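Morning run. Coffee first, then this:
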Amino acid sequence: MTRHAEQCALLSDRRVSADWMQPGYPFHSQFLQDHHEEGQFLTAMEGPEHLRLRRMIARPFTPRKVEQLRPTVRQVVDDHIDALLAGPNPADFVADFALPIPSITICHVLGVPYEDHDFFQHAIRTMTGSDVPDDAVNKSQGELYHYLAKLIGRKLAAPEDDLLSQLATERLATGQLNRHQLVMLVLFLLVSGHETTASMIALGTLALLQHPDQITVLKNSDGPEVAAAVDELLRYLTTVQPGRRRVAVADIEIGGQVIRAGEGLILPEEIGNRDESVFPGAGELDLRRDASQQLAFGFGVHKCTGQPLARLELQVVFAALFRRIPTLALAADLGDLPFMDDGLGYGVKKMPVSW
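And here it is:
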């Protein structure tokens, strides 16, 4: 079930569940399988509870609210381009540009102090790595959990204009969420809100440097064309690695096959995004392509809540980067770059660039 049409059908089928409490759910790691009863992320919930929690966090991620952040994100991007140009040449594009931008942005939305970013980035990478020992994962998870629990206490005592304060005062204080549920919700947003976007910024830049003819498209584009180009980059560089994990709760006949109740499903969106029947010439990067049906953010009721924010960040980055640094170039052999392919997402760990 790897074709685009079947993936969309299954991801919107009520007989397919994302609930990892269901027997037969295909966990992507032994650690998650051993510890899944300790709490669920939003992506592993179904039904009324999933919708209830999703609505609680929806307000800052509506297209209108996200668009209001564009000047803020543009300033963050410009500041980091300025810093890049004023700093060492070559520079590490990941550490100096790709990672800070989404980290600053999600911290701004959530109300998490950015000065603590080294701590939570290390904790998240430890938790999501596939070859990390269980004791290290447990340690990082516990440290990050207690950090967020303390931060929630501070927000209750002195609320600010951010999502964490809103959830603490409107949902926790009123009994609509308990403290564990709130910590897990914020942890989910923190994990999903910066790592994948950072990977897309770095990988997208790398792909464009390998396809200089496509950079010209960006330089000569306006808003709608940049938005379409971002869709194509998302299609071409799908960064979520383990596929969408689901389990059948009833028998399903699809694509000439029968999926039995209790069977686990792995729906690899990177393969759906290369379906030639939907994206002719799918193996080529073409920023003029209509890639609006790409599956990088999922499909159906579990489609990524924060996708408007991720799209905006990518649009601002790619609209500005090559206009302001037209001589940007990779300062290492492609084969020497250390890629990150041992966890939930695909990316590049370090990427020297010059200009």
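The CA atoms of residues 191 and 218 lie 29 Å apart. Good start to the day.
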